[in-house]
Write a structure and sequence with these properties.
2% of the residues lie in helices and 45% in strands. By secondary structure, it is mainly beta. The strands form four sheets. It has an eleven-stranded antiparallel β-sheet with strand order 1-6-9-10-11-13-14-3-4-7-8. Strands 18-17-16-15-24 form a five-stranded antiparallel β-sheet, with no helix packed on it. A five-stranded antiparallel β-sheet has the order 19-20-21-22-23, with no helix packed on it.
Amino acid sequence: MPRSRSLRTTLALALVSGAAACVDDTTTPLGERVLRIPEDFELCLVSPSPLTFQGAPLFHYRGLLRLGAGDVVLPSGPHVEAEAWIAYSLQSTADGPEVAGGKSLGAVSLEPDLALDRAPGAPQGWELAAYTDDPTAKPWGERLHLRVAYPTDTTEFDLSPLLLLDREGRLRVLASVPGVAADDPPLRVRAAPCERDDLDVDRVDVTLAEGAISFHTRPAIARHELGFTVLVEGEVDGIAIDVDSYWDLEYSAGNVGGAYGFQPVMAVRFAEQADGACILVVRSDPYAAETTWLAELLDCAQNHLRDLSVESVDIAQGGGEPRW
């Protein structure tokens, strides 16, 4: 799991509708349809990556989005919005506080014959339950937007099992993160389960003239989206590195013609050294005609300190350690 002082803290978050208090299982009328969050869920929020958003610094944003347990009553028919409120909190630094989301009145709705990420020609018969924290801020609300798809006439639109719904493309949670520049508007980005048990972790072994380092990377489900480095270990230029902190690891990659991992960028942040070194970056050169790897050390403000000499890069598919 992403490393943080408060990650294993149980949150006492309530989830209520705009018209009534949290719906209890024992009192929910038979046949009533609900959007159910059966337990507190934690999602990782990472954006923008330096590859996807030109000019974005490394480690631009990390967040842990936590949704609170409870039920929201769904409208009885399609295309009808009902007032609702889902409580959530957001932690944006490793040792920072969990800030509760604003208690603005949101809305929940049902849409027939609609499933997330459904391929053309896929069977009909799905319904989509959608929540937005601000119905006036179309289409995605202001801070939180949640959608989950189930077969038509489902009574409980349950967010569990979260990992399975996400893997099947039936769950989408969007949240807002700061723009790249100080005056940029917030960005709507996807939040996804932090931990996965359905993916092998690859290992990228980098041999340098100044040492050796291994990046343990978990592939992205949608190629360049939501990939993670879960561990970096080795020694470079006399600096011993062993980091598995969610907050201090960077990974992004593009895709060309459906190929995963095109032009990856991998970085790790470690304790500041006497010479100011704080970040190691290994990346594929986007301008080289053939695959060429570059490495450098940066200070904590991400200013270039010095280049490193890459001798070889070997990728062991499935050879990494699944720290989280």
